[in-house]
Specification:
CATH superfamily of the largest domain: Response regulator
Strand order of the largest sheet: 7-6-8-9-10-11-12
Order of helices and strands: HEHEHEHEEHEHEHEHHEHEHEHHE
Radius of gyration: 24 Å
CATH architecture of the largest domain: 3-Layer(aba) Sandwich
Largest sheet: 7 strands, mixed
Strand content: 15-25%
Number of strands: 12
Shape: elongated
Low-confidence stretches: none
């Protein structure tokens, strides 16, 4: 009988230890919070998918050894603070976001939880990090080079359509950074007049489009900000209706009939953001992880759209494209 009691006691202890170990292991499953400025419907195909692909390549399986909490702001910047606080209350291990206002909201919500950004235009100028090499604090990630890319888009427009002298530029003035100053400087160097048009929300597009026609701008470009890339069809339809050559900041514009795109490979940036998360979950500190620059760029031309709006693309420009849609 004593033997039986001893065996049963031992089994009970082992079971309790096993249950405790399992419980501890379950608690160790990391939780990532994504603060996304876009829409859950529009964004399903691009950033989230690439980021999750990057996690899978590193051995993370959602629902098994990692959990993801996503908050979509639907282009409304005033939602960032509330969602950032929500993610902090959930005690996520890392917060991931891809706009300067998103990072600022997360920064204001926590100084303890690591923050990874995956496509910010000027992280030093916006005060997010001390330097690219040594970020300091709890923030690091991938730089998007927005000021430089904006100037390059103007250059491509001028090279493709040498006769243009005035270009409309859709932007959101609420996004900090030197993008407009850089665009003005690039425009002056190319002999172009820049027409900045403020678009803070979807309701501002009608007025902006009216101004483009009133001022007789001959081409169109745009900043890579949520209100812009959340409304690609509306912008592309306006350009097509008025036969305006346009170059866009995101490849999604090409998918809905845009003429040209030049910029970073966002899928590559989003996938690389997963490596930051992986390093942080394994013990690295954001302060010690340098901010990385884009390494892949894309130039896409849609010849179907060119024909529809009655413009031709010079051969010297076509040969430089990474992809031509015919």
């Amino acid at each position: 009988m004593k033997k039986k009691i001893t065996v049963l006691t031992l089994c009970a202890v082992l079971f309790a230890l096993g249950f405790s170990a399992d419980a501890q292991q379950a608690k160790k499953v990391p939780r990532i919070g994504i603060l996304d400025p876009g829409s859950s419907t529009f964004r399903t195909s691009a950033p989230d998918a690439s980021f999750r692909q990057g996690l899978r390549e590193l051995g993370y399986i959602e629902g098994q050894n990692i959990f993801i909490e996503t908050r979509y702001a639907e282009g409304k910047l005033d939602q960032f603070s509330r969602f950032a606080i929500e993610l902090v209350k959930l005690k996520v291990d890392v917060i991931v976001t891809n706009t300067t206002p998103g990072v600022l909201a997360a920064k204001n919500a926590t100084t303890a939880i690591p923050i990874v950004f995956w496509a910010v235009g000027d992280p030093v100028g916006a005060g997010l990090v001390s330097s690219l090499a040594r970020p300091g604090g709890n923030i690091t990630g991938l730089n998007m080079l927005q000021p430089e890319l904006g100037g390059k888009r103007l250059e491509l427009l001028k090279e493709t359509f040498p006769k243009i002298t005035k270009i409309a530029y859709l932007r959101n003035p609420d996004f900090p950074g030197p993008a407009l100053a850089a665009m003005r400087e690039a425009a002056r160097a190319l002999g172009l007049q820049l027409q900045p048009l403020d678009v803070r929300s979807a309701k501002d597009f009608a007025g902006a489009f009216e101004a483009v026609l009133k001022e007789r701008s001959q081409a169109l470009t745009a900043a890579s900000v949520p209100v812009i890339w959340s409304n690609p069809q509306r912008i592309v339809a306006f350009a097509a209706k008025n036969r305006l050559p346009a170059i866009y900041p995101r490849s999604e514009f090409i998918d809905v009939g845009g003429l040209m795109f030049y910029g970073v490979s966002f899928s590559d940036l989003f996938r690389r953001a997963a490596t930051y998360v992986d390093k942080i979950l394994k013990g690295a500190k954001p302060a010690d992880l340098p901010v990385e620059q884009p390494t892949k760029f894309e130039f896409i031309i849609n010849l179907i759209t060119a024909e529809q709006i009655g413009v031709s693309i010079p051969p010297n420009v076509l040969v430089r494209a990474d992809r031509v849609i015919k």
